[in-house]
C-alpha cells in the first residue's frame, strides 16, 4: 500500500504498544498503512517508569476480546459502539471473527477518524458495516444526533467499548455519556477500563504506578482520572447498571496464559477492567 498515514507519535502510542496482537492479514494491512518511523518521548518515559507498560496495554485489549467473545452468543445480532476508537483496528478484528453476529459497528473519535476511514476503504472497499463518526464523546447532545443519523438503533442490543478514555475525562462526564445507552431491560453491555487509585495498589508495585501517573499528568498537563473499586461501583449504581465483574489484569493474564508472569496480584498493571449491563 503506497499510502502511509503519518500522525504524531503520541496519537499512535497505544497502537504501537499493542502491535504484537495485530497478526491477521487484514490487521497487518492496516498496520502497514501507518508510519511508525517517528519516535515518542512519551513512550520512552512510560517504559522507563514501568517496563511492562506494553504488556498492560496488550492484556487490556485481550480482556476486551475475551469479554466480546462471551457476549456474542447471547444475541443473534447486535450493534457495536467503539467510543474513543482512536487508531486501534478493533473493527477489523470484529469483522474477521464475528461478522455474522454484528448489524453495524460505530467508531467514534474526535481525532484521525477520516484518515482511518481512508485506510479501511483501501483494504475493505465497499464495507458497509462500519460507520465512522467524528465527535467528542463528552458532547453527548451532538453524539446522540450523529449516532441516530448514522443508523444507531436504540432498541437493539449493543456492545459498548470504552477503552482508554475514562482516564482523561471526569466521572461526571462518564455518567452523562453512559446515560445515552441506558435500556429498561439492561440489554446493552459496556466494557470499560479504569486507572486505579493508589490505595488499591500493592506496596511493591506502588513506585511503578506513581511513575506512570506522574508521566501522564505531565503529558496532559492536568489530572489523570484514577478511581478505587468502590467509586466505580458507586458510579454504576448511579447509572442503575448491573455489574457483571471487575477484572484485574492478573486475572486476565492467568485466564489467557495459565500463569502469572507479569501481573501477580490485583492492583498491578495500572488499570483494571469492568464489564456491566446498562
Automatic annotation (TrEMBL):
Gene3D superfamilies: Vaccinia Virus protein VP39. GO terms for molecular function: methyltransferase activity. GO terms for biological process: methylation. Keywords: Methyltransferase, Transferase. It comes from the Bacteria. InterPro entries: Ppm1/Ppm2/Tcmp, SAM-dependent_MTases_sf. This is Leucine carboxyl methyltransferase. It comes from Chitinophaga niastensis.
Amino acid at each position: 500500500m503506497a499510502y502511509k498515514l503519518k500522525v504524531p507519535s503520541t496519537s499512535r502510542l497505544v497502537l504501537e504498544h499493542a502491535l504484537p496482537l495485530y497478526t491477521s492479514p487484514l490487521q497487518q494491512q492496516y498496520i502497514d498503512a501507518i508510519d511508525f518511523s517517528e519516535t515518542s518521548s512519551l513512550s520512552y518515559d512510560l517504559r522507563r517508569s514501568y517496563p511492562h507498560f506494553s504488556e498492560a496495554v496488550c492484556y487490556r485489549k485481550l480482556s476486551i476480546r475475551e469479554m466480546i467473545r462471551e457476549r456474542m452468543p447471547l444475541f443473534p445480532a447486535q450493534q457495536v459502539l467503539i467510543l474513543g476508537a482512536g487508531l486501534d483496528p478493533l473493527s477489523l478484528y470484529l469483522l474477521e471473527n464475528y461478522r455474522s453476529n454484528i448489524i453495524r459497528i460505530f467508531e467514534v473519535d474526535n481525532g484521525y477518524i477520516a484518515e482511518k476511514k481512508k485506510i479501511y476503504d483501501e483494504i475493505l472497499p465497499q464495507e458497509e458495516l462500519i460507520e465512522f463518526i467524528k465527535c467528542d464523546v463528552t458532547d453527548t447532545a451532538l453524539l446522540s444526533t450523529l449516532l441516530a443519523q448514522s443508523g444507531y438503533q436504540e432498541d437493539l442490543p449493543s456492545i459498548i467499548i470504552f477503552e482508554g478514555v475514562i482516564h482523561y475525562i471526569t466521572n461526571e462526564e462518564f455518567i452523562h455519556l453512559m446515560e445515552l445507552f441506558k435500556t429498561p431491560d439492561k440489554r446493552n453491555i459496556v466494557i470499560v477500563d479504569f486507572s486505579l487509585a493508589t490505595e488499591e495498589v500493592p506496596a511493591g508495585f506502588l513506585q511503578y504506578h506513581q511513575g506512570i501517573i506522574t508521566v501522564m499528568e505531565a503529558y496532559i498537563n492536568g489530572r489523570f482520572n484514577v478511581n478505587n473499586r468502590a467509586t466505580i461501583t458507586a458510579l454504576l449504581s448511579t447509572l442503575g447498571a448491573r455489574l457483571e465483574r471487575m477484572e484485574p489484569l492478573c486475572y486476565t493474564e492467568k485466564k489467557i496464559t495459565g500463569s502469572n508472569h507479569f501481573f501477580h496480584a490485583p492492583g498491578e498493571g495500572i488499570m483494571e477492567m469492568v464489564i456491566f449491563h446498562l
